[in-house]
Structure to design on (706 residues):
């Protein structure tokens, strides 16, 4: 058996050194003189030995591992206490005689900390792949990628080695991170044309200190005489070397290889092989299918078809206010619309059935951005049911089709210009006369958004401030200090003279929120806590969801974490976490009246397919919700997530009480376990147990951060 995936191998190395005698020399060299590839091969040999142990011992070992990897504490135990499993004679035989010190052995196992990036279900799946002598699917592309790079750029490895960086190790880390991201990790450096840079958010999949996880794994590991310090240093060396020592042709090869594996936001290629608009790399079946007219049509049916205007077609200049001003010619928008319509028709759809958008890239170094479009171009988008996406490194806003009505623009007459305007405002100015709750802080970032209409002379003749559909905004957090789990966006309401929470979810290092009107919005941190969670395991989850205004406490300032949650209470939590538009109750259930406090929340959840009630027409809102009922609601909320073929089997193996999971909820239980929303307790799923407020807040936190 040959596995080139170090994370998978590290799961087994503990077993090897703890239970199985080493039968042959390992390379005959010390770990410090090995390459990263050789280190992986060392552990591959260990895997062969695992296969030779007796079935009973082997099954017991894997069972222990699957139990441990479901929690971060379990992983930490494997990392920190591995040598505690060995006697001094075993250490001598299995560690020291192989050229390793005990500290080096622990450092090698430290790579195991990268496992914390994956959900518990993903961790168990990797273990089971190893147990079944299969290469873990989550990590299968890394060695193939290294082989391709070495084939296309045979000198790159030696270039990086000369400055103390192992290419295999670095690409391995990038690959692991990429497996958990929705966006490419290698991007163009907009400030230095032709260069690339590595863009990794602080938070991935609920882990809010990605660099810390990576640094814990690689910090101090010595290979080939080089001691690796931290991820940022590795990134700096990599960026400097490839940007300064690769020529244009070599850089294009590297980008092409990275794009193939979804690591780089590549430029698509036309029939003649020349570069065109952005297509995004394809990875793991989730990438795009680019047509000849450079329109990206993702395989994911829920993702929009997209045509990006070329940067050359976007005129950039600074206006007198110091803002980056981008102007797009009407014909460019018209051509983009025609390309999208044609491409979507080729796959048997229309813009009425398939969401689509035109993206305008703006090279700007902050959020002070103005984008101008002729009204005829905007009308063209509206008439064809195509949205607009304006995108820079620091700011992005997505105007979905139907958000702005054609008649609203036509009221201002012909030949007018629609101007999207974003401007950073000094906090002291924005908050003058505004009463701020003492739990709110971090008011260093305020952005004023407006949509103005200009006449042919460039004079403002009106504004559009209300929208039929929410506008999705993303702002950079590069210049914001604070706890990412507690940051939110607040509308500075001039009428009530208070900030109002509107949302805020961290996505790839940016804060995403939705607005239905333009005004001033501030990034703020809410520090809300309760005395009865001070030492409770759910403290961080409860505080985060309280900061996002999803959960709240009781009179007297307490939370009651161990109190059970009713079905109505959990429905309210899930509706608020998903930021669903509230609908009025319409007598959907026989035991709920319009006057009940939860009526509209239940109606909203029902309309969105999250709840359906019982066969007798009741909802039983006051019944305490079971864990399986919670799993079903959460599973319904993940309607765009497809269940893997192995999910139910993984669930059955993970929990000793899996037979108690009723068939009506089995699929949703498998889904929420696979997605990491529910992880069980002490090896049990406890489907019929009641859900506490602490458990509910934790599950909702994980849903919120999906």
């Amino acid at each position: 058996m040959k596995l080139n995936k170090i994370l998978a191998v590290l799961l087994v190395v503990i077993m090897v050194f703890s239970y199985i005698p080493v039968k042959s020399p390992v390379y005959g060299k010390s770990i410090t003189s090995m390459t990263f590839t050789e280190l992986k091969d060392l552990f591959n040999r260990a895997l062969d030995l695992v296969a030779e142990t007796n079935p009973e011992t082997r099954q017991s070992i894997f069972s222990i591992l699957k139990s441990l990897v479901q929690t971060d504490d379990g992983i930490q135990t494997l990392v920190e206490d591995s040598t505690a499993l060995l006697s001094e004679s075993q250490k001598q035989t299995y560690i020291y005689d192989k050229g390793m010190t005990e500290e080096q052995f622990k450092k090698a196992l430290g790579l195991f900390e990268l496992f914390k990036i994956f959900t518990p279900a993903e961790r168990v799946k990797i273990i089971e792949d190893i147990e079944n002598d299969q290469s873990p699917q989550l990590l299968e592309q890394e060695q193939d990628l290294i082989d391709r790079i070495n084939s296309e750029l045979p000198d790159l490895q030696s270039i990086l080695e000369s400055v103390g960086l192992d290419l295999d190790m670095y690409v391995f880390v990038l690959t692991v991170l990429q497996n958990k991201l929705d966006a490419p990790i290698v991007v163009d450096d907009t400030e230095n044309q032709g260069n690339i840079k590595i863009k990794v958010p602080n938070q991935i999949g609920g882990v809010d200190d990605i660099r810390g996880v990576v640094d814990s794994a690689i910090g101090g590991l010595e290979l080939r005489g080089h001691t690796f310090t931290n991820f940022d240093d590795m990134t700096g060396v990599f960026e400097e070397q490839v940007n300064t020592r690769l020529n244009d042709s070599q850089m294009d090869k590297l980008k092409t290889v990275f794009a193939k594996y979804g690591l780089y936001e590549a430029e698509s290629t036309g029939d003649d092989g020349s570069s065109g608009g952005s297509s995004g790399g394809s990875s793991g079946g989730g990438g795009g299918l680019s047509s000849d007219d450079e329109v990206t049509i993702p395989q994911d049916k829920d993702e929009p078809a997209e045509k990006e205007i070329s940067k050359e077609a976007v005129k950039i200049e600074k206006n007198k206010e110091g803002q980056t001003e981008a102007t797009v010619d009407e014909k460019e928008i018209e051509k983009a619309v025609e390309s999208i319509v044609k491409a979507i028709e080729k796959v048997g759809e229309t813009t009425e059935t398939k969401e689509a958008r035109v993206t305008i890239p703006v090279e700007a170094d902050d959020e002070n951005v103005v984008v101008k479009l002729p009204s005829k171009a905007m009308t063209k988008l509206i008439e064809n049911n195509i949205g607009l996406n304006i995108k820079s490194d620091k700011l992005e806003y997505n105007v979905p089709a139907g958000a702005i009505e054609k008649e609203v623009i036509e009221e201002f007459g012909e030949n007018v210009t629609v101007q999207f305007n974003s401007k950073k405002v000094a906090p002291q100015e924005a908050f003058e006369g505004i009463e701020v709750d003492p739990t709110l802080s971090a008011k260093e970032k305020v952005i004023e958004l407006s949509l103005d209409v200009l006449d042919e002379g460039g004079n403002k003749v009106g504004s559009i401030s209300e929208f039929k559909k929410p506008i999705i905004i993303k702002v950079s957090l590069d210049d914001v200090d604070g706890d990412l789990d507690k940051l939110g966006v607040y509308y500075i309401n001039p009428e009530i003279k208070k900030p109002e929470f509107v949302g805020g979810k961290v996505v790839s290092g940016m804060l995403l929120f939705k607005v239905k009107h333009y005004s001033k919005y501030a990034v703020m941190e809410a520090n809300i806590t309760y005395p009865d969670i001070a030492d409770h395991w759910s403290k961080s989850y409860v505080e985060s969801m309280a900061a996002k205004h999803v959960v709240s406490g009781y009179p007297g300032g307490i939370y009651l974490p161990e109190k059970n949650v009713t079905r109505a209470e959990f429905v309210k939590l899930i509706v608020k976490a998903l930021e669903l538009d509230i609908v009025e109750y319409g007598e959907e259930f026989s035991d709920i009246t319009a006057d009940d406090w939860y009526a509209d929340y239940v109606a909203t959840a029902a309309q969105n397919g999250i709840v359906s009630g019982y066969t007798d027409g009741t909802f039983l809102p006051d019944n305490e919700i079971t864990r399986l009922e919670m799993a079903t609601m959460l599973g319904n909320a993940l309607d765009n997530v497809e269940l893997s073929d192995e999910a139910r089997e993984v669930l059955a193996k993970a929990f000793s009480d899996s037979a108690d999971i009723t068939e009506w909820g089995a699929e949703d239980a498998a889904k929420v376990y696979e997605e990491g929303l529910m992880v069980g307790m002490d090896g049990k799923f406890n489907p019929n147990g009641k859900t506490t407020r602490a458990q509910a807040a934790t599950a909702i936190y994980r849903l919120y951060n999906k």
Notes: The chain has a mean pLDDT of 80. The radius of gyration is 27 Å. The CA atoms of residues 129 and 136 lie 5 Å apart. The first helix runs from residue 6 to 19.
